[in-house]
Amino acid sequence: MEIAGILTYQDFKKIISHNIISLEDMRDRIVESNGKFKTYLKSDTERIIKQNQSIKFIEYIDSTGVINFVAPYYPNREVLNLDIKSVGYRYQSWIENSKDTLVNITSWVNLTQHGKAFLVDVPIYYNSSFQGTISAGMDFKSQFDNISSKQNLFSVLIKDDVGNIFYSYNNPKTEDFKTDQIFTQRINPIVGRTVGDWKFEFMFYSNQELRATTLQNYILALGIFLSFLIGLLAYFFLLAKRQSHRYKLMNQKLQMLNEEIEKERRRAEDASVAKTQFLSNMSHEIRTPLSAILSISEILEGKQLSTSEKEFLKLMQNSSRILLNLVNNILHIDKIESGTVELSKEVFSPFITLQRIVDIYAPTAKIKGIEVKTNFASIINPKNVLGDVSRTEQIFTNLISNATKFTEEGSIEVFYEEKLQNGRLKINLKVADSGIGIDPSKIDAIFERFKQLDFGITKKHQGSGLGLAITKTLVELMGGKIGVQSKEGEGSTFTVSLDFHKVKNRGENKKLRQYRNLSHLNVLIVDDNLLNQKILAKILSKNQISPDLSSDGDDALLKCASRHYDLIFMDVHMPGKDGFEIVQHLRKIDNTSVILGFSADVTKEAIERGIKAGMNDYLTKPVEQETLFNIMNKYFS
Ligand code: ADP
After folding, report:
1. What would the pLDDT profile of 121-131 be if each residue is shown by its tens digit?
2. Does the CB atom of residue 452 touch ligand 1 within 6 A?
3. What confidence tens digit (pLDDT) does each residue in 506-528 have?
4. Does 78 lie in the same domain as 104?
């Protein structure tokens, strides 16, 4: 509305000034020709009236106030020769308007010749005197209507300097609108002259129009807002699309990476399986000849030997045990690392286990001139517990063998105590030596695997650096604690505390070293290694057993078909049918014989496979006399 108002207002101003300029031009022509141009007054005024629709008539009022010319003549002829002195109000204003050369305009006045108009007086001065005025009657309605008709939505109202409405278009209803809903401007009709301003008011044709336009504006605003919103949505949609594409790519990459990782994992698993396989094979390969050596040496022990032969035998036994220990340690660390260590539950006495180990190591220490002092006074009646005997044995062995190994002079003291507490047996073991001791800064390192404080080409002591790592892991696995205190050059004290479930003693702890006569048993040894057959047969002979021997699976099956065996020792790795396969066949025929797996393969997998195939127990080579003695008692007591 405001824009339409401004444009209309400007057009109106142009019309007014154009009309007035045409009169000024005429005045200039007369003045410049010193009045001569008055001759053309008629034609000149007619042309001006023709060209300026708002000029209704033009009069020439001479200096005395008499109208001596008027055009167009007919409608205005009654004013010709009128002395305006007789029209009081008009004369007054005319006199006022003629004082200088400037153009003047009256308010909207009633005309003598009827009707209303603005009277514009253009004073004429030449020859240094007032010559009269060119006065015109002006009504801008038709010219203003031309403009207004193009703005049908709006109404226009113009008031003169004293508030007379001289122009209205489209029935303006100012009362319907608030002040700020009407576009208002002042019009100064004569440029350069301070005459009273007119008031130009521009408004909507009606309130509905305003409301409709306001509604339109709201709709437009809403439209703009919605387009903005849609634009925003489109932007976010594209953004999301781009992001989702990026995520898709990332996902693909992740998937590829996952596949790679999966491949690597499988490769590592395969490698681990291969490693276990390799260890199992190596263990078999090393333990088989080793078992033979140890068994032979045990048999030889009972023979009449010279002192030097006995010494060599002892040396051979020691070396073999060290080697066996090493193989066992490697197998153990592998099991611990792969998380496959499971603690077994057997009834045993930790004290008797300790005693046996001390008995084994005391002679070695004695050879070095070291005394192993024990302080077992408090143990009157050793208690039985439920736990893993071989792991406990391993913990004790490692501490005592280390003390023996790292002590060159002085003594080794072994303290042991056991306490009953809420149905559990708490044991404390202390192994104190006067050996080489440990640098305090390196104390933590000794429990790391393959860590030896004395290593390199100057290494004096044997070992793999695995013993304490295994010991610590086993102690912790059994819920116990291990500690060490040491001073370099003065000795070390290792302490271990363990806690077992206590079980009732049945007096079986005393060693029944008496071999019973089991000659009534039918026993079969199946082993492709003839030496192993012989060694085992030799040990069994202590029970007066003379076993049948078989070197392969087919032969064993034939033998079992023709005779019932109470006890069968079954090697696992054999050419042709392996031990597991034969046991499966045998179990189909007979379920009563005791079948003992008998192998150097000590992996968990082999043992489980054996039990699954139908073996009652699984012995690992080399079988010690003690173990065999116990197992015979277990099944045939
Ligand atoms: P190994 O005895 O086979 O070398 P261990 O794991 O049993 O491996 O011991 C790790 C290291 O800790 C040994 O090499 C030795 O340096 C140190 N150590 C263990 N026990 C003793 C001890 N009683 N006195 C001095 N040093 C010891």
Report:
1. 999 999 989 99
2. yes
3. 544 444 456 778 888 999 999 98
4. yes
Give the closest residue (by CA) to ligand 1 atom 16: 453
**pLDDT for the residue numbered 466:** 79
The verdict on the CB of residue 435 being under 6 Å from ligand 1 is yes
Residue 306 binned pLDDT confidence (cut-offs 50, 70, 90)? confident
Same domain (yes/no): 531, 449: no
**Beta-bridge mates of residue 483:** 495
620: CB partners within 8 A, 6+ apart: 287, 599, 600, 602
Instruction: Report whether residue 406 contacts ligand 1, using a CB cutoff of 6 Å.
Output: yes
pLDDT attached to residue 402: 93
> Which residue, 419, 423, 421, 403, is CA-closest to 350?
419
Contacts of 83-86 spanning 24+ positions with Cβ under 8 A: none
Whether residues 182 and 42 share a domain: the answer is: yes
d(CA 385, CA 395): 16
Range 314-344 burial, b when 16+ CB lie within 10 A, else e: eeebeebbebbbbbbbbbbbbbbeeeebeee
Where in the sequence is the domain holding 160, given as residue range(s)?
Answer: 2-202
Is 491 near ligand 1, meaning CB less than 6 Å away?
no
Contact 625, 298 (CB under 8 A): yes
The whole-number average pLDDT for the span 593-614 is 85
pLDDT-derived band of residue 475, with 50, 70 and 90 as boundaries? very high
- Position 49 pLDDT exceeds 90: yes
Whether the predicted model's global pTM rises above the 0.85 cut: no
Return all residues near 362 (Cβ < 8 A) that are at least 6 apart: 372
Which residue's alpha carbon is at the smallest distance from atom 21 of ligand 1?
402
379/372 Cα distance (integer angstroms) = 18
Would 605 be classed as within a structural domain? yes
156, two tokens: 């226009």
